[in-house]
Amino acid sequence: MPRLSALRSLLAAVLGVSWQQRLLGHHVVPAAWRRQCFSAGSKAEDSGQVTPILKHLMFKIKSTGPITVAEYMREVLTNPVKGYYMHHDMLGERGDFVTSPEISQIFGELIGIWYVSEWMATGKPKTLQLVELGPGRGTLTDDILRVFNQLGSLLNKCDISIHLVEVSPKLSEIQALTLTGRKIQSELDVTSPVYMKGISKAGIPIFWYRELQDVPQGTSFYLAHEFFDALPIHKFQRTEQGWREVLIDIDPKAPDQLRFVLAPSATPATEYFIQGKEVRDHVEVCPDAGILIQRLACRIQEDGGAALIADYGHNGNKTDTFRSFRSHQLHDALIAPGTADLTADVDFSYLRTMTQGRVATLGPLKQQEFLKNMGIDVRLQVLLQNSSDTAMHKHLLQGYDMLMNPKKMGDRFHFFALLPHQRLAHSDQKVNLQHSKSLSAPVAGFGELIWK
Ligand SMILES: C[S@@+](CC[C@H](N)C(=O)[O-])C[C@H]1O[C@@H](n2cnc3c(N)ncnc32)[C@H](O)[C@@H]1O
Fold first, then answer.
1. What residue range is the signal peptide (predicted)?
2. pLDDT in tens, 224-250
3. CATH number at residue 105
4. What residue numbers bound the domain in which 144 lies?
5. What is the SS3 assignment for 279?
């Protein structure tokens, strides 16, 4: 298969090189990562803490009645004034959780290779827009840009630009520092869809937007790592009277606290979101994720490119996954809202359904399989061989273990891709298969590469 050998050469060209290592120090591998446990969590010490978001939500509930979990999540995470994501850096050892790109540079490097491989597979288009949704600290894009730089001779005729979709003013400030090495002022024209602009350390233009719709169309390669899990979900419970939506109300026994309640009757949401053939007793649905995936599918169908989505999730079989994290610990999701992260597992089967057949989908594939297929072992060995620093060795090995160990992130996180149908047209395999391991389609990461 000629494409596979081209990919192997590409991987060898990048992975085998002893180029830059990220400096040790910023990137301590913490003992725990964000998505380790499932349960509502125990009552927080500060159960009586009345945060500005709690006051705001109580006012809302008193005025118009109980709110949906989706409305709660949206307000708590992205309320422009006091939302959790808006004004502080929650990533890393001193924050509330840590993500793969923050754990090891190898993660972003392998993803960078995936994009170059897909760019080559689509005939090396003259422009390459890399669009990252929810870029956190900008670490992942920074690692990807290092790969692009390393492959300068291959990409030098390509017009590369970076497009970041980010709601958080605080995180976009950190992204600017990571990617450009300096602070960037917001655009003065408030009507412009671009709210910040900069140039990367290697001279690549970077643009910031609040929504995907604002990103210009054109051949684009999309990336969403731990983004879909932050989108608001609706929760539904099966009862003897039929499906009911789970709502959030003020606890009558503790007027400064919230509690979950069930809607007294079916609502349009229950009718609309619950499938007739549903067998579970509890279901979470994320309509925002459905709309976003439709938009991505339409763009890829029209303009080509690809999307890579990596998150923890399931294939339409899990039930109650809504949870909250603070300081690397489970936290009660209804206590002190705005001071802790809220998240729910991504339902990949729902995402696949919502593409409505416009694109081919691959995965979800376990992180450990995807990274192994991408050559993580080779890259680790090269980095180990090129450093004599024992602290660096320890860091690299701990990072590898965290990413790959099935009991840690290896089995919990999954990779899922959207590709134009014609991308797989030459493969005699079927697309949209749930277990992409059975595919031999030459898409990097989703098929095994033989390393010699
Ligand atoms: C869990 S963090 C993941 C960060 C990064 N991708 C990583 O893996 O390190 C979620 C990111 O999505 C952003 N975000 C959350 N909701 C968003 C929304 N509705 N629109 C745009 N960005 C959002 C957050 O500000 C943050 O940058």
1. 1-25
2. 999 999 999 999 999 999 999 999 999
3. 3.40.50.150
4. 14-36+99-231+286-316+345-438
5. coil
Residue 127 lies in a domain: yes
Q: For the segment 145-183, what is each residue's pLDDT rounded down to a tens digit?
A: 999 999 999 999 999 999 999 999 999 999 999 999 999
Task: Please count the CA atoms within 13 angstroms of the CA of 168 that sit on its side-chain side.
Answer: 27
The dihedral over CA atoms of 267, 272, 274, 275, expressed in degrees to the nearest 10, equals: 150
CB atoms within 10 A of CB 62: 9
Give the per-residue pLDDT at 439.
Answer: 37
Q: Whose CA is nearest to atom 20 of ligand 1?
A: 167
Instruction: Report residues whose beta carbon is within 6 angstroms of any ligand 1 atom.
Output: 77-78, 85, 91, 99, 101-102, 134-136, 140, 165-168, 171, 225-227, 230
Q: Where are the alpha helices (DSSP H) in 181-221?
A: none
Does residue 59 fall inside a structural domain? no
Overall average pLDDT of the 252-269 stretch: 95
Tokens representing 169?
């003013």
| Residue-wise pLDDT tens digits, 320-336 | 999 999 999 999 999 99
Average pLDDT, the chain: 89
66 inside domain = no
The yes-or-no verdict on residue 433 having pLDDT over 70 is no
Number of domains composing the chain: 1
Q: Is residue 25 part of a domain?
A: yes
Q: Could you tell me the two tokens for 168?
A: 């958080």
Ligand 1 pocket test: pick from 86, 88, 139, 227 the residue with the most ligand atoms within 8 Å of its Cβ: 227
